[in-house]
Amino acid sequence: MTEDEKMARIRERFPEIIARVNSEKNSDYQNISNREKLFFAEIFEFVQQHDKFLFKELFTAMSMSTDDIIKKSKEMEQSFNLKEHLLSSYLSLVGKNSAFENGIADEDIQYAPTVENLYMNYKYLSSEEAAGYEVTARQILDKITSAPGKANAELKRKLEKVTFKMKVFAGEEMDGKCQYDGKSGILTISLSEGCFGKHKDALGMVMSHEMGHFIDASGRPAGYAGKMGRSQEIYADAVGYKMAMSCGFDLEHYKAENRRKGGFFSERMNAVETLQVVDNAVRCYKTRMVRK
Ligand SMILES: [Zn+2]
């Protein structure tokens, strides 16, 4: 098939493609199979190169929320306030933090679907290949839930009510993702192979960070589509930090690796470091008081 022929076929099927994109938005593209992801990734790239107008239409359809999603989420907001939820949970599990409060105040709630879910094609290891990693990850999780600390206890309580699934995807990067479906009660944590290899020193903190996302997600009404990208990451780092610190996990590798990525990753690590400085000061003060 020539490129022109391919483009003609895409144009022909375009309404069908858009209709599919629109229907899958409702579940934040979480039910797209890996095969379909390949299809969408190919269409995405091809149209981007060959027809700018069509691409704009495609990208708009992929990234814009439907009126229906916004309407449903706004209705939920009569009894649920995302900003309030993040703030009160942070206050209870981490403590008072005016930088976090200001960040929440400055950030708008977005209702856009997670576009990456539509075409990002993680190569998941088979359950046999992932078995060893899964044992390691579950040991880390056991450590987190049995360590002292308010966030650790909160996590333990919340995990008792869900089905926990663990997946490993190919890749050397330090990377993970947390998917929680409030309707089915299934929590899926996916970690890159790199988290068990090159970045094994960060595994405790990566797992804690993903569990921070779960604590946030499980406190939201099922089907709510509001997102606060920046604040959610800072929240997961802070709550994750508290849990990881309580276990004595290494934080330096996680911080160094994120700093290397720069930009917002680096900014996030400054926020973690501020928490560390405060905790260290408190610890020193307590030690001095004991000595007196
Ligand atoms: Zn995250």
List the helices and strands and how they pair.
Layout: H1 3-25, H2 34-50, H3 52-63, H4 67-76, H5 82-93, H6 98-106, H7 116-119, H8 127-146, H9 150-159, E1 163-169, E2 176-181, E3 186-192, H10 203-218, H11 229-247, H12 252-261, H13 263-291
Parallel strand pairs: 1-3
Antiparallel strand pairs: 2-3
This protein binds zinc ion.
The site of zinc ion (ZN) has 4 residues, from helix 10 and helix 11.
Describe this structure in words.
- The protein has 292 residues and is mainly α.
- The chain folds into two domains: 3-64, no CATH class; 70-291, no CATH class.
- It is 65% helix and 7% strand.
- The chain contains 13 helices and three strands, in the order αααααααααβββαααα.
- It has a three-stranded mixed sheet.
- Strand 2 and strand 3 form a beta hairpin.
- Helix 2 packs antiparallel against helix 3 and helix 12 (252-261) runs antiparallel to helix 13 (263-291).
- The longest helix is centred in the last third of the chain and has 29 residues, at 263-291.
- The termini are far apart.
- The mean pLDDT is 94.
- The structure holds zinc ion.
- Zinc ion binds at residues 209, 213, 233, 236.
